[in-house]
Each structure stands twice: as structure tokens, then as C-alpha cells.
Amino acid sequence: MGDDAGKICVRVAAVNDVGAIATLRSLWSAGSGADPEFRGRMADWLVTEGDRRTTWLATLSDLPVGMASLLEYRRMPKPGSPDSCWGYISNMFVREGFRNRGIGSSLLAALIEAAHDRRYARLVLSPSEESVSLYTRAGFIVPDDAAGIHRLLVRPSRLA
Fold first, then answer.
1. CB of 58 within 8 A of CB of 106?
2. DSSP SS3 for 53
3. 3-state class of 128 per DSSP?
4. Which CATH architecture is the domain 4-156 placed in?
5. Backbone phi, then psi, for 122, in 5-degree steps?
6. Around Cβ 72, how many Cβ atoms within 10 Å?
7. What residues contact residue 105 under an 8 Å CB cut-off, 6+ apart?
8. Domain limits of the chain?
9. CB 98 within 8 A of CB 1
10. CA-closest candidate to residue 140, choices 117, 111, 118
11. Please, are residues 114 and 157 in contact by the beta-carbon 8 Å criterion?
12. Model pLDDT for residues 89-117, shown as the tens digit of each residue
């Protein structure tokens, strides 16, 4: 068989991807118990969050294998300063058995590019212990000692 890495597709999730996003969230939350209304709640959440949050879906040969979302925080305007925004990365998940194949890096690259295109001042996230190296390789840093390495990472804008 060929190399699966060449078949990774990362794209913004569409309305018809709600089932894939719900499945990935369920896998991430394994042990939460059955929830027959979950898919509908996920669909409602995606619609409600749509004006400020973008969710990406990663597939490998059409199989949903990862997701991530980017929430836009709009700063309160200040006199004499241009309006600005920053992004918060959340819900980054790659299915067990598909990790360490570049899927997380591909998702993160898509989010970083979107943040650049949207001219965000910075990206912020609260990583799991296992994911810290992924984010630091992508340029995220601990902003100060008070934050702690597993509490907050920041990626300054390339625009400065």
C-alpha cells in the first residue's frame, strides 16, 4: 500500500460534516455514556458558534481522523488604535491510532494560516501535556513563568 500521509485532507468543516465532528468528539470523550441527542446538539452548537468559531476537519482517505477549532476574540476598541482580534485554538483532536502521522501538524498549519489571513494579533491555547511539543515546534511559547507550560501557550503574529 502507499503512504497514507499523502492522503491527508484538512478543510473547514461544512454543515454536512456534523456527523463526522460528532463522532470525533464522542471518541475524544470516550466513557461519557450514550447520548442519543448528541448529534443534534453538536449541529446546533456548530451553527450557533459559526460567526466566531471555525472548525476544521482532517480526513485520511475520506475517514474523519481529526478536528480543531479556532475561536475569534474581538478586542474592545481603543481610541487611537486599530481594531484587532486574536484566536483561541481549541478542540484539537486526532483519533487514537492515527497520531504521529502529521495530521495534528496539518490541522495546526491550517489554523495558523487562517489566523495570518485574518490578521490576528496572536494565537493562544491551553495544551494537554502530550501536545506541548506539537505546539512549541509550531512557534508557540509560554508567555511568562506565571502561566506554566501546561496552562497557556501563545504564538505571536507574523504581522508585527
1. yes
2. strand
3. coil
4. 3-Layer(aba) Sandwich (3.40)
5. -165, 165
6. 16
7. 134, 137, 138
8. 4-156
9. no
10. 111
11. no
12. 999 999 999 999 999 999 999 999 999 99
